[in-house]
Every structure is written in C-alpha cells, then in structure tokens.
Specification:
The chain is α+β, with helices and mostly antiparallel strands and 150 residues long. The protein folds into two domains: 43 residues, no CATH class; 103 residues. The strands form two sheets. Strands 1-2-3 form a three-stranded antiparallel beta sheet, with no helix packed on it. Strands 5-4-6 form a three-stranded mixed beta sheet. A hairpin with a 5-residue loop joins strand 2 and strand 3. Helix 1 packs across helix 2.
C-alpha cells in the first residue's frame, strides 16, 4: 500500500478490525520510511462493474466516486456516517448482485436518490438537482411536490 505522505510502498499493518457493519476490514498502517500513519479499508468485490454513461461511453465503476458524490450532497448536513456507509455499501451490493455487467449510470443515480431520501431530504434535493440536471428554480417544484405527496 502506497503511503499518502511520501509515496513509499514500504508500510506495515499495525491493527486490523472489521468495520461496524462487517462489510470491510479497517487496517491501521504505518509507513516504514517516513513514520506516517494512515488507514486503509479492504472490501469484498464480487465482480468488475462497468458504468454505461448517457454519452454512450463506458467506465469502470468507482466506489470512491460514488462516495464522494454522496458526501457532496451531504455537505454541512448532520447525517450519521455509519448510516451513510451502510447506504453506499448496500448500493454496491445491489449493483454487484444484479447480474448485469454494464450498469446504466441512471440506475446508480436512482439508487443514490432512494438512499438519500431516507437519510436527509436536503441532500436528496441537492443530488437530484445535479443528477436530473436542473436548469432553473422551477425545476425544483416537481421534486418537492413528489416529496410532499408521500
């Protein structure tokens, strides 16, 4: 594992333990060159996933990118980090077990919106505004109407 501080590949695992939801192993590491300490996570990957984008391009699925987009929607919101991690892990498990090799980006967006709606309505609207490419204020009316209708 490459050290995030000095880029050395000489590091040692000092502590390993499962995450709270048992979907990953958390490893505390120390760099043997600079002494920097950092954490890595090891997760099960059932198979390689490819994202079919709206443009027709294909790209490998990136869990970190999914997590970053969720965190952007949740910025400055008081969301339970464990609940967010469970949501992200659940989305990844759904995608991996779907039986499809190519996953439409729209399916990922739909799953994220479903998850965020349960965690934080403001984050849900933020994500929807980007995912559904809102251009003006009236674009928010439909999604807010849908939220009130439930």
């Amino acid at each position: 594992m490459r050290c995030p501080y000095c880029s050395s590949t000489d590091s040692q695992v000092k502590d390993s333990r499962p995450t709270d939801d048992n979907t990953a192993i958390r490893r505390r590491r120390i760099c043997n060159d600079c002494g920097g300490r950092f954490t890595t996570f090891e997760r099960v990957q059932l198979r390689e996933l490819t994202i079919a984008k709206k443009s027709g391009k294909r790209a490998p699925f990136d869990r970190d990118k999914l997590e970053r987009s969720v965190q952007t929607a949740l910025r400055k919101r008081d969301a339970d980090p464990e609940r967010v991690e469970r949501m992200i892990s659940g989305i990844v498990r759904q995608l991996e077990s779907s039986g499809e090799g190519d996953i439409p980006s729209s399916e990922i967006g739909r799953l994220v919106m479903e998850g965020l709606k349960q965690i934080d309505e403001v984050a849900y609207v933020r994500f929807a505004s980007v995912y559904q490419d809102f251009k003006e204020a009236k674009d928010f009316e439909g999604i807010l109407r849908d939220m009130d209708g439930e």
